[in-house]
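FORM 12-B: Structure-to-Sequence Request
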């Protein structure tokens, strides 16, 4: 089945944005007051010489609009020069209008007077006027490649804003771009933090943005307790965002050197870039171009009170490239060598079912239910990647689950809609393998499986007692295979670190009924994996919340759930032309329009790692230079891109 990865285009041709969010080190957000054209040209040239082709730039709102009905023409002249400097270097930029929020502080025009940014008619009109007038001034400049309405408006605007008010505001300000004559693509700059991706309702909806915007732009600065989850943080958000059929541009990502050494910063950039590409992103804009530790800026807000904000740069405060910029340069060369504009994500046979309880506030449910789905789904998605069975996200809220996948993963689920359970059995009857793992949820309210026909679906008799859960008392859960199952042989033992709250660190007690079979038992001899054949396919029940336990465990990945997913992929007949047995290496494919494929090998090992890819019959693996490949050595957290041709 196809995996979405819509492209930005210009004049009917796909384009790739690879760039940086830009404030000159001459002034940070106040750069336009003391605009230094020569320095800006030097800063842009360093980016261009390292493979970057664009920037995201900002109209610092208090300066550009000092009065409700006046725009500062001197600053506009500075911005016009800024555009000229881009054009001279063959670069483009995306202007951002309402700034607004920036780097740890909200910056109001002096005349706002505390008015509601979304709901006050007068203030919304002033915003739309500003957007229209700035668009009118710069719409014809060839260096303008797109428009952004705001910078992280959910942080700047009123918390708890209603969806209808936010959507109306967005409609008016996007329309203002078109009223000003802007024909370039436009987006909101809201970070794609809507409930569909985060489980948190901030008034913005990714679905509403997709209706109005030409691309969706995640901003991702996750801080994790597991290196592998950290490396996939941006990619997971891009995967979720790609389900809305708009180009996904990773609009902000990066790190401060105050929090990471040069070596670790480079590894983070490498992983974020390549993993997000494989997760559907087709553009990347790093935060940001420069450090700001200068005698002037260290005394200036926000750097005065957020010292770590001074060190997010791709270059240091003298303009010297940092390791992060080297990673962007290397990534640009990969994009060029594989002819990225002619590539598309390879199809997949694996679907990850995301419960609609992530994005739909059903009556008498709790916020924790939504965050639980997000965190558990992410861990399952990572396990699928480490099993070399990368999954497409299938949202229950989009309607009936689509047929066509060979393997459906439903991880550590407490809640699905009743019709979905019937649909899962229908998919299995049609030939699919459907895997579901148990969870009672992570809190005490209506604690238990909100499942339809649990016993009938899986061929078991559950032995739950009302109001109680069966706690996992072992520190490590052991599965013992009772027979061969996919890539797992009889007698294989798998260990899982037990974790969770008193409500969630629980297993499902069952007896296996006629027509089903315990494929694996736990360390106490109780059924752990149960298979029931259904028509041409099978339903597989895991009685432990493996994905949830891993999701709340620090430094756990890679963990043994990926081995179960690998076995499920083999059992389901998932087509995988290239695999690597080591779960520390993830394999994914990209198709080229000429017929060959590109194979990404991404290491999650902190040491150098030799690997021998297993290539399916009928395929030939070579280097990008055409040399046959039998084995490769991956650098620590390294990435290798190889070519795959049909024999």
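FORM 12-B RESPONSE
SEQUENCE OUT:
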């Amino acid at each position: 089945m196809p995996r979405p990865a819509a492209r930005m285009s210009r004049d009917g041709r796909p384009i790739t944005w690879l760039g940086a969010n830009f404030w000159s080190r001459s002034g940070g957000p106040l750069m336009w007051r003391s605009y230094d054209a020569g320095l800006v040209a030097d800063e842009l040239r360093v980016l261009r010489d390292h493979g970057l082709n664009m920037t995201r730039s900002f109209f610092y709102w208090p300066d550009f609009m000092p009065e409700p009905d006046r725009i500062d023409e001197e600053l506009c002249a500075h911005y016009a020069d800024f555009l000229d400097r881009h054009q001279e270097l063959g670069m483009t930029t995306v202007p951002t209008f309402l700034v607004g929020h920036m780097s740890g502080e909200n910056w109001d025009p002096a005349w706002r007077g505390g008015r509601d940014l979304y709901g006050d008619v007068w203030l919304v009109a002033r915003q739309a006027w500003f957007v229209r007038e700035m668009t009118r001034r710069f719409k014809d400049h060839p260096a303008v490649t797109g428009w952004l309405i705001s910078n992280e408006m959910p942080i700047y605007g009123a918390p708890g804003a209603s969806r209808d008010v936010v959507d109306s505001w967005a409609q008016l300000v996007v329309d203002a771009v078109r009223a000003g004559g802007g024909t370039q693509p436009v987006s909101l700059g809201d970070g794609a933090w809507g409930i569909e991706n985060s489980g948190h309702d901030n008034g913005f909806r990714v679905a509403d943005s997709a209706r109005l915007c030409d691309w969706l732009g995640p901003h991702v600065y996750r801080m994790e307790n597991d290196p592998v989850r950290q490396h996939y943080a941006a990619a997971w958000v891009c995967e979720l965002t790609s389900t809305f059929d708009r180009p996904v541009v990773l609009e902000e990502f990066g790190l401060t050197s105050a929090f990471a050494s040069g070596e670790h910063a480079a590894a983070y950039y490498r992983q974020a870039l390549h993993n997000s590409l494989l997760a559907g992103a087709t553009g990347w804009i790093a935060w940001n171009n420069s450090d700001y530790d200068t005698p002037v800026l260290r005394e200036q807000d926000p750097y005065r009170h957020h010292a770590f904000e001074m060190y997010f740069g791709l270059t240091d405060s003298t303009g010297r490239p940092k390791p992060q910029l080297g990673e962007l340069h290397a990534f640009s060369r990969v994009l060029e060598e594989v002819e990225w504009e002619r590539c598309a994500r390879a199809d997949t046979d694996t679907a990850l079912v995301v419960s609609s309880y992530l994005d739909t506030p059903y009556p008498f449910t709790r916020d924790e239910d939504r965050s639980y789905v997000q965190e558990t789904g992410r861990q399952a998605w990572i396990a699928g990647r480490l099993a070399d069975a990368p999954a497409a996200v299938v949202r229950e809220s989009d309607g009936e689950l689509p047929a066509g996948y060979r393997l459906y993963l439903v991880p550590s689920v407490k809640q699905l809609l009743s019709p979905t359970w019937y649909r899962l059995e229908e998919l299995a009857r049609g030939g699919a393998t459907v895997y579901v793992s148990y969870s009672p949820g992570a809190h005490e309210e209506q604690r238990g499986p909100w499942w339809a026909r649990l016993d009938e679906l899986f061929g078991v008799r559950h032995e739950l007692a009302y109001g109680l859960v069966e706690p996992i008392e072992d520190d490590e859960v052991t599965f013992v295979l009772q027979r061969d199952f996919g890539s797992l042989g009889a007698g294989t033992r798998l260990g899982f670190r037990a974790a969770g709250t008193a409500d969630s660190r629980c297993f499902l007690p069952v007896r296996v009924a006629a027509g089903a079979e315990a494929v694996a038992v736990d360390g106490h001899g109780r059924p752990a994996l149960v298979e029931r054949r259904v028509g041409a396919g099978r339903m597989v029940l895991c009685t432990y919340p493996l994905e949830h336990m891993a999701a709340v465990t620090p430094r756990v990945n890679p963990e043994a759930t990926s081995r179960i997913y690998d076995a499920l992929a083999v059992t389901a007949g998932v087509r995988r032309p290239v695999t690597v047995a080591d779960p520390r290496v993830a394999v994914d494919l990209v198709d080229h329009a000429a017929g060959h494929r590109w194979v990404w090998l991404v290491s999650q090992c902190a040491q150098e790692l030799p690997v021998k890819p297993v290539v399916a019959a009928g395929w030939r693996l070579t280097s990008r230079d055409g040399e046959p490949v039998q084995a490769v050595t991956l650098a620590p957290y390294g990435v290798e891109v190889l070519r795959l041709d049909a024999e």
